[in-house]
C-alpha cells in the first residue's frame, strides 16, 4: 500500500470517527452515574463521546440517594471529571446523538443560551436524544416535548405535563428518536433502547 493510500485511509478513518461522535451536555452537580454510565457504555460500543459544560474545567458530580426519615433524596459529593469543551465551542453538526443526564445540573443549565441552541439543533435535525431523571427539564425548556411521550424522575410528572408531554412511569420510553428514563436504576433499559435507535439512525461504521 502506498503512502498516499495510507493517508487516504487515515483521513477516511477520521471522517468516520467524526460521524460517530456523541455529545453529553452537563455541569456541576450532575448525577455521577447518569454521566459516567452512558459515557463508558457508548465508548464501549465504539462511539467517540465528548462531555460539554458551561466551561472547560473539572466538573464536580454528585450522588443522590435516600436516607431513612427523609421525604426526598439527599445529595453527597460524587466523582470529578473534566469537561472536554464548553457549550460555546460545540458544533452540533459534528455529533450524531445527544445525551442529557440528570442530577441538579439541568435546573440551572436550562437558561443557558448556548446550551439551548445546541439542544434545539439536535431536535430540529431529529437526531437521537437520550434523557434521564431531571434531564428532561432541559428539553422542556426549549419546547421540544410537546405532543411526545416521555418519562422522567417521577417528581417531574407535572413538569412534563406542563411541557405538553404525556408522562409514563416506565423504565424507558421511546418516542421516535427520543429515549427517556426515570433515573440511574433504569440504566440498562435506557441504554438498551437508546442503542437500538442509534444502530438504526447512526451506526458505528
TrEMBL record:
Domain DJ-1/PfpI per the UniProt entry, residue ranges: 21-195
Keywords linked to the UniProt accession: Hydrolase, Protease
InterPro entries: C56_PfpI-like, Class_I_gatase-like, DJ-1/PfpI
GO biological process: proteolysis
A GO molecular function held by the record: peptidase activity
UniProt cross-references to Gene3D superfamilies, sorted A to Z: 3.40.50.880
One Pfam family hit: DJ-1_PfpI
Claim: NAD is one of the keywords in the record: no
NCBIfam families, per the entry: PfpI (TIGR01382)
Family: Belongs to the peptidase C56 family.
Name this protein carries in UniProt: Protease
Protein's organism: Streptomyces lasiicapitis
